[in-house]
Amino acid sequence: QTKPRKPVLWYHFQECTCCSESFLRASHPLVGQILLEMISLDYSDTLMAAAGEQAEAVRNQAMKDFYGHYIMIVEGSIPLGSPGYCTIAGRDAKSVFEEGANGAEAIIAWGNCASSGCIQHAYPNPTKTEPVHKIYSGKPIINVQGCPPIADVMAGVITYILTFGKLPELDNMGRPVVFYGRRVHDTCYRRPAYDAGLFVQSFDDENAKKGYCLYYMGCKGPNTFNSCAVIKWNNSVSYPIQSGHGCIGCSEPNFWDYEPLYSH
Ligand code: SF4
Ligand code: SF4
Ligand code: F3S
């Protein structure tokens, strides 16, 4: 209770803001606990009351006060094709990103956009956008993958960093092993159907009604590392496969370039 809350600056670049939407549904711990008791969210384009010059002033002050000690959160990828593709207060995304990264103790890349570029990075990548780890080095970077990441995975990553004062163990794609160490296929409740050769052949057939395996509907669970089948979504209610749709591999780099998405 006497420990000062960790300063956090949350940046948005090319993204859809659903990583923020997901985070707002964190329940372990609750998002309110994270924001009011665990971190000091000193800058966030979408969650702060301030806007325009006030918001810029707050960010500049926080960078100055906590230089070298704040956590930078990045939502979105950074376009390199033209300085005009993504601007904040008239400045190009790359310079705003680098300024924030230079003063950060560590960088959390939220979601597929910041971790691997997501849909805007799909061929032919018209804005020449790149994820954080492709354009910056020299600081610890953690890729919290997914489009978006699971809320309680986001909450778990923040809790780990604050509790142990370091990043958790990462896999060879920069993802925390504790949440991305198993394939969706390894923990899927439809796995017995896969092993028994019981497959859905079209989305409205009898086998779909019986809850058989979605592999022939293009499920990418066998190649996708995430906790969806364990932690699940919306307060542990369900996950894509449980709602009848195959996994599209949203926690893997370049999943939008899978050809085709709806075939194994
Ligand atoms: Fe949106 Fe997906 Fe990018 Fe998150 S990773 S900002 S959910 S497009
Ligand atoms: Fe594997 Fe997908 Fe079938 Fe589940 S639905 S068992 S993840 S192929
Ligand atoms: Fe994404 Fe597949 Fe989970 S599409 S939400 S990793 S089941």
UniProtKB/TrEMBL annotation:
Main location group: membrane
Top-level taxon of origin: Bacteria
Location in or out of the cell: Cell membrane
Positions that bind [4Fe-4S] cluster 1: 16, 19, 113, 147
Cofactor entry: [4Fe-4S] cluster
Cytochrome-c3 hydrogenase C-terminal domain: residues covered: 180-260
Binding site for [4Fe-4S] cluster 2: 185, 188, 213, 219
Binding site for [3Fe-4S] cluster: 228, 247, 250
GO annotation terms (biological process): anaerobic respiration
One Gene Ontology cellular component annotation held by this UniProt entry: plasma membrane
Single Gene Ontology MF annotation: metal ion binding
Keywords assigned: 3Fe-4S, 4Fe-4S, Cell membrane, Iron, Iron-sulfur, Membrane, Metal-binding, Oxidoreductase, Signal, Transmembrane, Transmembrane helix
Domain NADH:ubiquinone oxidoreductase-like 20kDa subunit per the UniProt entry, residue ranges: 16-160
Entry's family note: Belongs to the [NiFe]/[NiFeSe] hydrogenase small subunit family.
Complex formation: Heterodimer of a large and a small subunit.
Protein name: Hydrogenase small subunit
Provenance organism: Coprobacter secundus subsp. similis
Taxonomic lineage: Bacteria, Pseudomonadati, Bacteroidota, Bacteroidia, Bacteroidales
Gene: hupS
